[in-house]
Hints:
With 159 residues, the protein is mostly beta strands. It has one helix spanning 65-71; strands spanning 10-11, 33-42, 49-62, 75-81, 85-88, 92-95, 100-104, 111-116, 121-125, 139-141.
Amino acid sequence: MPRTAPTPRIFQTPPFSEKIGCSGNVGSTGTNYLWEDIVKGSCLCGAVTFEATGEAEGFAVCHCTQCRKQSGYAWSTAHVPDAALAIRGEVCWYQSSEKARRGFCPVCGSFLFWKHADDPHTSFALGAVDGPTGARLEKHIFTSDKGDYYQIADGVPQS
């Protein structure tokens, strides 16, 4: 009898009251872009995939110290309502502050998600989107924390 692939399990970002870490369960304001199709993304190795539907917003590049340390430069992001983001695969969640955590692939280490405790949205890495997004950056944030080894000269508003 031929073997069939198991049906992928879809997980949501867990509440902040749950323990953070890696497990089989995904410990998972500006211009809006309404995607007609599902936007798909993945980590470098493909072990974690995600699909975002509906309106995405908050297209930004974050230059905060934490994003620089985790990404090696800056982190480009957008967010969707939690219910509009489906995540497949094991995600490790790192509690980076009292109110925020970051999700990454436990296999290749790709930094894919950011979640604030008081926000009903989850941010995802624009660099992890498979193919073009059709979106444009709205802003650079935490620019006072940016590295001294680069300049921001793209004309996009900075805060």
